[in-house]
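ok trying this again, last paste got cut off
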Amino acid sequence: MNASVIARIAKIVPLAVVAAVGVAACGPTNGGSSVAASAPSVTPSATPGAGAVPTTPAPADTTTEATPTTATPAAEAPAEQAPAAAAVPAKADTKPATKAPAKPAPAKPAGGIGITFNGLHQGQKIQVGNQVSFSVTWKNNDATGSRSVAPVVATQQYEGAQCQRILSMAKGTLERKDASGWKAMPSLSQGGGTDYTGTGNDAAFTLAAGESRTVEYRMVLDTSNHPGRLLIEADAVTPSTHQVLTKGTVTTSVIDSHRPTVASATKPTPLVTGTTPTEFTFNITSPDGPGRLRPTVYLSLPSSQGLTGQDVTIEAKVGNEWKSFEVTEDCNGRLGVAPAQLDGAIKGNPVTYTFRVGLKRTPTAPVGIEVGAASDGHYSAATTLHPTIQH
């Protein structure tokens, strides 16, 4: 073989080898078995080298992002015909995006008239009969301008009022301190209408923006008021028109440390209409002793029964005798004996009383007899007795 032939073979062999490798890697294009398929299988090493392909590919990791890879062309091809690298898209981040918190809008200053109580606080205890001093401040919270204010203070409807037949109004006195001194208000309570809103006209004032005015008050709750929750209200009222611009309230607790009590009561005997009165005995006490202690006895039944004082008899046992008393109607519509009627009638300082109550007409509704006590204007809670009524 001459030198020129050998040189030609040396040039041809590398191209043949490259062609064979390309065929083995890609396999036949006519559906036949590839050369690599008929060769013995080779187990890959634990750590494959660069370009090594494992027999079974591992599943993709779902907790981390996938790394993009580039495909290798089957055969050498001109640069302009080389297939583009197939990029594997990165796994989307499933974590929600954190939104920056919005900055709160600056608070706008509140306008209008502000009302503040001084010397009175929520839940404050007020003893009946004692004077309570306090003040109220009205402030113009507007940024500009001025407002005219008539200061008004009064108590709302009271659950412990002695008289509750029409309106439950606390009894007592209220005074306002003006430039000339203390002035008595027409009423401590608001009552049932709007007349109370005009009680501040003669003390009206004008407040510039940011300006305030404080007014002093003092009040005394009458001893006849029973314990309960009392709401005291202060209003900013427009002078002359009596329009309430705003209001403030404070809830107080009325107490009575001098209140008498009914210690015990016997079961009443049967009542026979027109002939036999019911008889009962009850015992009363007072923290202040028996000096001014007096019993109270009232008949409790619906007003629809139409009974009057002429239809009821009430007697008290004085010594060994029965003494009759006039039956009158109180502010709650009850028929009975007022404590004042017993002053001087029952001598000494007894604390145990025996009464009997009779009816001349038979009521159609159940009858209750409320027994209680009074001591120097302080009243006990009532104890109700229920006699059996026979015809």
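PB: full thing came through this time. The radius of gyration is 51 Å.
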